[in-house]
Amino acid sequence: MRSFYSSNFEKFLNDSEAEVLGMLATNNGFDLNDLQKNTWLYEIKLLKEILKSFDSNGKILFEYTIPRIGKRIDNVLLINNIIFLLEFKVGETSYNINEIDQVLDYALDLKNFHKESHDKLIVPILVCSSANTKENNISAYEDKTIKPLLCNSQNLQETILRILENYNENSFDYNDWENSPYLPTPTIIEAAQALYSNHNVEEISRSDAGAYNLSVTTQKINDIIEYSKANNKKSICFITGVPGAGKTLAGINIANERHKFEENEHAVFLSGNFPLVDVLQEALARDEKERSKTTKGDALRKVKSFIQIIHHYRDAYVGNDDVPTEKVAIFDEAQRAWTKEQIANFMSRKKGVLNFEYSEPEFLISTLDRHKDWAVIVCLIGGGQEINTGEAGLIEWFDSLRRSFSHWDIYVSNMITDDEYTRGHQVEELTEGLNVHIETELHLATSIRSFRSENVSAFVKQILDNNPTKANETLLNLNQYPIKITRNLETAKKWVKNKARGTERYGLLASSGALRLKPVGIFVKNELSAPNYFLDDKDNVRSSYYLEDCATEFDVQGLELDWSIVAWDADFRYNGTEWTYNRFNGSKWNKVNNESNKLYLKNAYRVLLTRARQGMIIYIPEGNPEDKTRPTEFYDKTYNYLKQIGIEEI
User: Fold this and answer.
1) How far is CA 515 from CA 351, 489, 520, 544, in A?
2) Of 110, 129, 350, 466, which one's alpha carbon is 20 to 30 angstroms from that of 451?
3) Position 539 in a domain
4) Does 13 share its domain with 89?
């Protein structure tokens, strides 16, 4: 049921308090304590008194569910075609900013993801029953969401009447609204929390055509796993996709579904992305601690059996013949696995292991190959996302399979031919001599990171590919996703703060090579705690909200913000005709000539420019003619190029 209690005003007024409370208790799936019982009784009594004077055809809902994040709105009132959201804090004597954000978040969630709410007037009201009366100035955001109103038990009715007097809305069917399709686009953090607490991917993902592929891809992988299991096959699958298409979400979902301990089937989600793993482990542990009332340490230990740093998994099997517990292993961002040279150097320096003879892909495959019967590896591959020296890309996975594991079945999508995956190699060359199956379902073609626009990743690719004409055409279709440009950092900060509502997260981003942003107060070399940056509240100085800590491509890959400031330095700059690649060393900029290093730098900006779900502002400094490391020409041509594309200056 979408709510614990639902009726028109006439029936609600005729039902006794005991009858309403009984319905709420019956539909409540949790233990009913005295605090919750008394809160509901207070709401019932107050709303019965208030609603006597309203149209009996209005509708009231208690505990209306928001599936995306597993929360419930205390009360929804549908009156005169206006949606009122009431969040009660019984006994509260003051209006807490976090509680104001909470009720606004509910309104924004409905506005963005609840189909029948997109064009409706939504009125969020925080009701602190014992607080002082506050004069409310009624005003609305551009999307017809009223800015949160603050009420106590005495002026709630008067406030509702004021709204009704000021707004005349088109009629809609209240039953259709109550049962409206809900098409969410959760953050990867929200998605991981929901999946880990046994929601399925259909509940938390948009069900329209743009994200349909996500469920299809998950089902295809499950089919391959079942086939491999039934026929004692070893299989490796490559899921490709555009930035923000949900590859990580698909991987977490597969790992969650394949935890079948009773069938001796274990799955693990592995990633070399330390910040992503840190953030997900911390988020899931906090959530587990809250839900199960366990200790933080116990919660974290449980989470770490499900999501692990790939290097910790790898190290457990070096120098032994141990067979992994897991039969299914999902490798996130598999294009970032290390080359033989990179891992040999690391193992020698850090682990004291000499003459390590494997690339990372080859060794990881070898661990699953130790199973005598079946095993499945799922590699999540992001095109154009190798961002660091020694990252092998897709090519090394195929080379490893050809060298040592030609008996494995290989499943790839028909989009594996894109140069962002093959890096100039022909697919026939990569797959020669291997048992390859083409499965179209293994490519995620549509970005779902931004529910405002699905064309952001294409737009960014066109910018970076030096295709301003095409980028301009794409920009014209991004009217729901604001992109601005400025030369003033304070202007950029004000813009994201003004755009963000409720707990929508904003933050400052820059390339790890942006060393000459230091004079304007952006320090990319400062150590950043990703869990603090992405999870903590507005009152924590280490959170992204403070706009003091700057996240680089290494901190933010695989994660996202609602609104971002992308600070652009002279490491990747336009010279009037093409992009140039630069590295700051000592006291001067040097040209980057190595093609792989050029690719890493370009991909760093691809990552930074595709992190925001709702909109971004690009900050390019003015430079300083008296500073030879920051002359104005290093920045002006990049700025003019982006303006030429049509990005609006503020």
Assistant:
1) 31, 16, 11, 20
2) 466
3) yes
4) yes
